[in-house]
Every structure is written in C-alpha cells, then in structure tokens.
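ok so i was messing around last nite and threw this chain in just to see what happens. nothing serious, just curious
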Amino acid sequence: RPAARHRDATQQPVLWRLDDDERLVLTVLGQRYLLHEHRPQPLSWRQAADQLAEIQPDAGWTPKRVEHAVTAIRTRMSKGGVPGLTREEVGEPVGNALNDNLIRELVLSTTLVPPDLEQLGDT
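result:
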C-alpha cells in the first residue's frame, strides 16, 4: 500500500463547459453511468435520439444529429487533452469505446453528475 501523502496538493478535475443541448444529449447517452449500472455502456444513437424526441418533441432529434453533437464534443475535449476520444488513439474495432471513454471522463470530472438525470423526467 502506498504511503499517504497528506501534504500533496489535491488536483481538481477539469470541469468541461457544456451548453444545455450538449448536457441533455450526454445525459441521455450516458444515463447508465449516472445510474451506477454494472458495466454501463452508452445508449446507441437511435436509442438516444428516440429518448430525446420524447423529451423535446419539437427539437428534431435524429440519430445523425445526436452523433454529430457527440462527435463535436469528443473533438473539442480531445483537443483539450483528453486521451481515447479519437479513432486514431483507440484503433479498430472502435465499437462503443469512444463514447465510453467520453462518458467516463465526464463522470470522473464531475461534469456530468446523477442530478443531471432530472432533465430526463420520467422517460
């Protein structure tokens, strides 16, 4: 067991700035993580779009729109120094790895927290 280092400074996590739509999309995509499910996985683009359409019926959510929103966030965070958010870093087959890494970073940094689930209502 490593020795305690009480005098060392505690490093605060980086809180990532998200607009309201981004926070909603990521909360839907990563709800299983926020619910502390065993071995959570992100929702599919289709599942996320369907749930977003229930929450915001007039917003025009489609799987492609969800994908583009999440890809833009991953790109921004990758440029900000978060590893494991690009195909080049993860390698093939990618599967859910990019979104899994994204959601894990957002939860670890406390950018996404369980109270964000309140946005989802009873869907």
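not much to say yet. The mean pLDDT is 90.
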